[in-house]
Each structure stands twice: as C-alpha cells, then as structure tokens.
Amino acid sequence: MTIPDSGFMIDNGSSCLPIPPEEENRIITELNNESEANLKEGNLYYVISNRWFSSWQRYTRHSIGESLVDEQSSESQSMDILSFKSADRPGEIDNSDIVLNENGSEGGELEICRMLEEGRDYVLVSQQVWEKLLDWYKGGPALPRRMISQGTFNKNFVVEVYPLCLKLIDTRDKSKSVLRLSKKASTSELYERVCKFTGVEKEKACIWDYFSQQKHSVLSVSNQTLEEANLQMDQEILLEVQDVNNTYPSGKDSTGNELALVSIEPSRSSVTIAGGPTMSNGHSTGYSFNLYQGSSVSSSFSDIDDGYDVYKSRKGERGGLAGLQNLGNTCFMNSALQCLVHTPPLVEYFLQDYMDEINTENPLGMHGDLAVAFGDLLRKLWSSGRTTIAPRVFKGKLARFAPQFSGYNQHDSQELLAFLLDGLHEDLNRVKRKPYIEAKDSDGRPDEEVADECWKNHKARNDSLIVDVCQGQYKSTLVCPACGKISITFDPFMYLSLPLPSTVTRPMTVTVFYGDGSGLPMPYTVNLLKQGCCKDLSEALSTACCLNTDEILLLAEIYDHKIFRYLENPSEPLASIKEDDHIVAYRLSKKVAGRTRVEIIHRPHEKCASDSVKGCQRKLMGSPLVTYLEEPLSGADLDLAVSRLLSPLKRTRSSGKLHNGKENGFVKEAVEDPSNSYNSTNQFMDAAELEETSSRGLSFQLFVADGNSSSCKPVDKDSLLNYSRVVKVYLDWTDKEHDLYDISFLKDLPEVQKAGFTVKKTRQEAISLFTCLEAFLKEEPLGPDDMWYCPRCKEHRQATKKLDLWMLPEILVFHLKRFSYSRYLKNKLDTFVNFPIHDLDLSQYVISKDGKPHVYELYAISNHYGGLGGGHYTAYAKLIDENRWYHFDDSHVSPVNEADIKTSAAYVLFYQRVKSETNAGAGETSQVHVEL
C-alpha cells in the first residue's frame, strides 16, 4: 500500500509506520504515568538531551510533566517558553551535546558533561519511555542511570545521573584509570570491579582511600557503601598488590616519594572534650568523650574528617583561619559553615564539653550525630592553624540526614544554614519529651501577656543553645476582610528573610476587553516596578480603565489567536511576561462564581467547517473573547452571548465602512468621542432584538470543542452543553459577519512593550537594609494559596497580615531574598544593599519593652557571586578577639579590609548584639577569647 508522506508514525507493535504526533504523546504520557506510580530503588532511567526532547515536545504539542518546564533557568529564558508553534518531526535522538568526547574510563563508559541541570540541559525518562522513543526515532547514545534511595529518616528516590568517579592508581606500573560506580555500591563491589579490571586476585588486593594523594585508611571488603566510606567525586584510590612474599609495597608511592600515612583510628586520651587535645611533640593523639557504651554518637569521633593530622597547631599560630576544601560544588556548604564556626556563642559552646546536652532520643533530631559532626569540625577548624580541612565526614553525615544536599550539585547556602540551625537545635534540645500544649487565641489580652505565654510554651518544647542565642519572636496580626476578626499570635523565628524592593520600572501595554459587550477593546499603558507581580498590573489597569467596584479583571496571555494561559495568580512575577507577549484583560462582573467560562475563538469560514475532526485544527484569527454564563448552557445561550459581545463592533448601517479615528486597529477615544461614526442607538443590541435573534435560529456558525480541543462539533439552538468549567467556542466568520461587524478591532494586539521602543534606563539605586526590613514588616494580604481560616466566619479568608518584631535574639541573621522562582522564570537580583557594619540600631522596629539593647554588630557574611547557573559562594568573617576581617574562599583564606566587605554579593548577614555594658563604646561587642 502507499503510505502518505505525513511524517506520522504508527506503532504496530513491531515496526514503525506513520502515526499522529498526538498519539505519540498519548503513549509516552501513559508510560510516564505508569513509571511514576512504580518508583523503587534500582529502576532504570535514561538521560536525554533537553535540546532534542524539547523539539519532540513542540512536535507533539504537549509536555510530559510540568517539572520539565518549571526547572527552566534564567539562561534559557531567551527561548520561547512552552512554544506551541507548529514544528517538524525531530530527527534521531541526539545526546551529543551532553556527552564528553573523552572516554578514558574503565569499561568504555560514556561520561555526561558536569554541571548540567535537569530540565534545562537534560531530562530523565523511564526505561519504557526510552525504548519507545528509540524504536520510533533511533539515535543515541544510550545513557542509562539507576534510581537510588537517599536519606536516613525521610528516604526519597533520585536518579543518580552522576555516579561516583574514582581515579584508580596502580602502584605496580604507576598506571591511572577511571572507575564509575554508584555511591550506594559496597566496598566489596569496588574490589570486584578493580580486580576484574586489573586482573588481580581479590585476596591479594589492598585498596587505600588515597584522598588528596595521602593514604588515609584501607577499604575493607564489606557491605559498607562507598558513600559511608566517605569517598568523594574524582578522588584517588590506591591499589597495592601482595608480592611473592605475601607483603605489600613499602611506604613509597608510585613516584618513589614517601606516602603520608594517617592513622585509621585516633588513639584515646584520658582528657575530656573540655580539656581539648593532648599534645605530644606538637601532634594530637585524639579525644576522649564522656559517652556511654553503645551511644549512637560514640562512633562519630572515630572518623577523621579530612584525613590530615589536623589537630596539630604551630606554636603561636591562632585558630579560626583554616579553609575548607571544595569537595565538588560544596562552596555553598563551606560558606555557610565558615559563618557558623565564627559565631562567637557557638565557638564558645562547642569548644567546651557539650556531650551532656546531646539528645539521642529526639525523633525530630538526628540522634545527636549532626551536632557531634559539627562540633568535631568546628574544633578542628579552630585547632588546626591554617591547615585546610576537607569536611568529608561532615558532608557524609549531611547527606544522610538531608538528602537534598547530597551529590555534587550547587545548592543554596541559606537553605543549608536553615537546616543546620534547626538540626543542631533538635540534637541539642534539652527537652527529652515534648509536652502537648494547645495554642490559645489572644482574645483581646495585653500583648505582653500573650507574648510571654507563647514564649513559655515554645521553651517548654524547645530548649537549646540555638534557642538561647539564635531565636527571637515576632508578632503576627491577621485581620479577616469579611468580619473584621483580629487574630494575634507570637511566633519564634531563627532568621529574617527580607525582600529586596526594586526601583526600576517597565512600561506594559495591555488591551482591555469588556466581558459583557458594553464597550470597545482599548489598550492601556501603565508603568510598574520591574520586580512587581500580576497583582500590581491588575491594580494599575483597574485605575487606568476606571474599573467599577462590582467588576474584576481577568488577565490572560494571547498566543496564536488563542488564550495561552491565564494570569490568575496575583503573586506571579511580571518577569514571566516578556516584551513581545500579547497580554489582555477581560472586564467581568464579580458575580462569576459558579458560572461557566466561555472562550470565543475566531476563524475564517471554510467549506470544511462542518468536519468534526478537522474543525479545531484550522487557521485562527483575531483575539478571543471571554464571558461567563450560567448553567444549563444551550446553543441559544451561546448565540446570544456572541451577539452581545460583538455588538460594539457593529458597523453603522448607513456606511458599512471602516471608522475614522482608528489607529493600529483601535479607536481613539471611541467611547467618549460622540463624533465617531458609531450610532449610539445601534451600538448595543437591545433585549428585544436579541430575543428575536434567538427565536429564529442561530445567528452565527458556532462550533464547540470537545474536552481536549482535538475536535469540535456544530452548535444548534436546542443543544445543551455539559461542560462544568470552560467551554471553547469557535466562531466562523462568513461574508455576512464581515459585512455586519468590524473585526479589525480584534486584530493587531499591541505587544507588552513594542520592539525597538527605547525606554530611558533608570539606574538601579542602592537600597538600605532598613528599606528591606520595612518591606518585610509591611502589611499585605495573604496569597490565594495561603488563605487563613477565620474562626468567626468558619471559612478560609484572604486575610491581611502584619508582622512586628517583638523580641530579638543575641545572634540576628538576615537573609536577603536575591533569588525569585516561578513556574516560568528564575531570577537573581544583584541589587546593592547598604547594610551597617557597626551600630545597627533596630530600636524603632521592636515594639516590646524588654529592656534589652537592640544595637548589633556585623561579624559574618555569606556571599553569592554570579548567576543561577554558575554562581560561587564565599564568606567574610571577623575574628572578634583580633578585630580583623578575613575572606574565606573554600581553601583560600586571606585578610580583607573592612571597607571592602560591602558588596552586591552579600546574601546572608550575621549580627551579634552589642552588650549593654559596652554599648557606650561605638561598635564594641562582647568578645569571646578562644584558648587553644
């Protein structure tokens, strides 16, 4: 038979014949849903280049999952978001852009380029989806990856896109090769792979952890995972083989140099942790701890965090100046850790004997492991002089308790800080059993009484060093917009996330349509803050078009003469709207709840319009109209609605010509100017005329689309439409309609910002920390996804919320919200925030009279440089006892002038309260002198 050259493929089970693209999409979607319903460890997934996969999505006009679009980064925003333009069938699967050309690994495995981001550079598909796509399109190469489970308490499943890469050094011939194994593979599996690759008998092989070219420990043949053995990405492992005398090579490396040997298990001393390390010839022999046998934390200190003899400290060399080695995109962790280990109360606490406060029973904690790992790392950083520490053990503990920070992708230093502070609190919580306490409403009681009650309740369940020094309290006031009910609560906080108000504006042109046919469409241009949201746009348009109090605006984006999306989320950032987009707003009555939304889409009349299959695939024109109708909805109701919406476009019966005063498809002052060629008496159809139209049959050729808009059927007067939410109606414009109505008013929508239109650029002004704080404390309505349940109305309400600072902690942390995320956009603000280094006085923002000083001194900053894709974190920290600032850039530590620490990279700011007795001295603060 002859196969039409349609480009489609039909799957007959064994071969590939043409089938429609929507059928491809249906099959892939079903397979994708099936795989998501059967997630388990060991499932096989395949990595596919997003460049090829996006072309397949455009071809099939559908996305498998929202996540494949939501993860778009700012670097890819120049691409048309979810472009639904017609696309050709893609060629063979091509993964060449995500695969390295180098191939020096054992077994000839292909390596995926590093630093790729899921959703931007690649997508993951199940084995069944890959086999189906490969059957249809061929190509490759295949990049299979396994699903693994992560976490100790809250296990989650992830696909290990980047297996552990280990560099094997064979001491026999000095050869070097690369092995790739899952971090969940056991050391026994590692021995099998190494022995098979090198041809060595397993009994004669000895593999060393050779991190940073130093022997650390022998990897035993066991079920211990490579992750538990603290092996890191791209590190070396050393293979030694027994000779004929059943002995291993002497302490020489492959180049003949002496190998630095670090003891596997540090010896114990008789001192407690409070006594610090026992020094022998300048070297520490380890710590002894007051732990009972069998404690979950008793084994934590037997690990060596970095493998170096880090406990040594040169005579006269002060502590706190050690760098942290980057283990592979761990600069975010190093930045956060340096800020915490230079927090004076934490330094003082963890250099003493804190073991009695370890809570191994808290189900919300990590059985004390996180606190012990952090304390051990802090002690090493403060006792190692300037020796760089590799926090391998700490990173391993972190991955166990917080799988989101595992692997080697870049993460957010503030998110890590939040986890660490909360985790340290739970591990050090002095409350062994938390009592149940029922929260009470304020009920008009004095704020002091309610605040004190809330803090006592909080302390009854949460009592730790972190609460003592890092937690404050703010007042939250909620007001119901319906009944005026006021609810006041006092909640604890660990840090304050401050928004960065923008001073840059952008002009936006939006066309406003009447949802009841009472006026002509009219474009309005408004100026808004660039970092604003759709709520700001709606409010500005409401003022510009004189919106009535009983009306609302429904924002929508028009693409290819259809509604691409509704902008119904008021918090949607304006950054998701591009300059060449076409945005419209529909004026509607507020009484639309429970009614059916009707979209009227225009298209030129064709003879095949009655074809129910091809009807929805035809060329479209103009801009859709939107209205709301009550159910039950009949064909006559649709005809009546179309007549009403088109009534402002009726030509004058005398001339039938285009009207004067029209420019770019829109009328200047059309409503206000009585001299235009519209006859006011005929501008709108009266009820009698509409009733007459209804009685004699439909006035228009209307077609209603089915549920997925793949086909449509003609509408007759008596037909009832059974659609609950949205009805898409296609209006065919015959010569009759063109004679009666001027459709030019529905064409040529202006862009949001006309291409080539130059706007005077406003320089981004510096903003102060106080401006950010005032924006944080500003009263604002809750979002629609964060509704408040009013106890008086017994309903969820969009209440207004006001925050006030009530009690400030000794350590005050400010998080500057430089990163914004939405469904369509990720963005970073490089706004310069001018923050005080000395004498940050917050007295005017604290509403309680607790008698404590509210003046603070800056002592640490977590910085973020660059954009979202390839940023870098560093830290500034002040050594309090020498009153000097240092720059911590991973392993590199250098002094920095105080005048240079204020930059637009400042991300998280750490302040310490100035003690009242030293408050008279400007900039003075309580000093913690660390004895080492």
UniProtKB/TrEMBL annotation:
According to the UniProt entry, what is the EC number of this protein? 3.4.19.12
Annotated keywords: Hydrolase, Protease, Thiol protease, Ubl conjugation pathway
Q: Which domain of life is it from?
A: Eukaryota
Q: Which SMART domains match?
A: DUSP
Gene3D superfamilies reported in the protein's UniProt record: Cysteine proteinases, DUSP-like, Phosphatidylinositol 3-kinase Catalytic Subunit, Chain A, domain 1
Cited InterPro entries: DUSP-like_sf (IPR035927), Papain-like_cys_pep_sf (IPR038765), Pept_C19_DUSP (IPR006615), Peptidase_C19_UCH (IPR001394), Ub_carboxyl-term_hydrolase (IPR050185), USP (IPR028889), USP_CS (IPR018200)
CDD domains under this entry?
Peptidase_C19R
**MF terms per GO, please?**
cysteine-type deubiquitinase activity
Question: What this chain does, per the record?
Answer: Recognizes and hydrolyzes the peptide bond at the C-terminal Gly of ubiquitin. Involved in the processing of poly-ubiquitin precursors as well as that of ubiquitinated proteins.
Q: Which family does it belong to?
A: Belongs to the peptidase C19 family.
Indicate what this protein is called per its UniProt record. Ubiquitin carboxyl-terminal hydrolase
Please name the source species: Trema orientale
